[in-house]
């Protein structure tokens, strides 16, 4: 089958997609977007989190055909022409990036949380941060630096219209 969708704002077309292929596989192997990681393949770790029509999903659980005609946003799409996204900068500055395997999913989940909170005119509370990131597993950081990064990103994005 032919898959046509928009990825990070750019129309994409991939031919000969097998109906059992995951969106994650198509993004990584066919579109050359390796940011989202292939870890558990069961939707348990969050390393493959992407946006599908503006909602975070585990790309390993989404059949590629489900993305037909839809908008997909990956971690590669967070950064703009003017540099890193504030969430990416916060993760670097807070030391929340170690091996980097969980980082793409955490960045997308953090962006989603912080944007939703900002749109409501507030910053996320610690309990809300923990809940929003509960589906993202990290084996390196112990999570405190990740929480620090989310708080830092929320502070920086509070007045940002991104």
From TrEMBL:
User: Would the keyword Zinc-finger be found if you checked this record's keyword annotation?
Assistant: no
Give TM segment ranges.
none
Q: Does the keyword Iron-sulfur apply?
A: yes
Report the residue ranges that make up the 2Fe-2S ferredoxin-type domain in this protein: 1-78
Q: Which UniProt keywords are present, listed alphabetically?
A: 2Fe-2S, Iron, Iron-sulfur, Metal-binding, Oxidoreductase
Instruction: Please give the superkingdom of this protein's source.
Output: Bacteria
Question: What is the protein's name according to its record?
Answer: (2Fe-2S)-binding protein
Q: Which PANTHER family match?
A: OXIDOREDUCTASE WITH IRON-SULFUR SUBUNIT, XANTHINE DEHYDROGENASE IRON-SULFUR-BINDING SUBUNIT XDHC-RELATED
């Amino acid at each position: 089958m032919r898959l046509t969708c928009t990825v990070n704002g750019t129309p994409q077309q991939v031919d000969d997609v097998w109906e059992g292929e995951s969106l994650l596989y198509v993004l990584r192997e066919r579109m050359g977007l390796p940011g989202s990681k292939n870890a558990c393949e069961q939707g348990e770790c969050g390393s493959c989190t992407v946006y599908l029509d503006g909602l975070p999903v585990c790309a390993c659980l989404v059949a590629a055909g489900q993305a037909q005609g839809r908008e997909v946003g990956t971690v590669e799409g967070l950064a703009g022409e003017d540099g890193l996204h504030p969430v990416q900068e916060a993760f670097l500055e807070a030391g929340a990036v170690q091996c980097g395997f969980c980082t793409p999913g955490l960045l997308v989940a953090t962006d989603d949380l912080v944007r939703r909170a900002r749109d409501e005119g507030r910053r996320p509370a610690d309990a809300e941060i923990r809940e929003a990131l509960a589906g993202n597993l990290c084996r390196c950081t112990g999570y405190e630096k990740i929480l620090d990064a989310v708080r830092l990103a929320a502070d920086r994005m509070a007045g940002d219209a991104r």
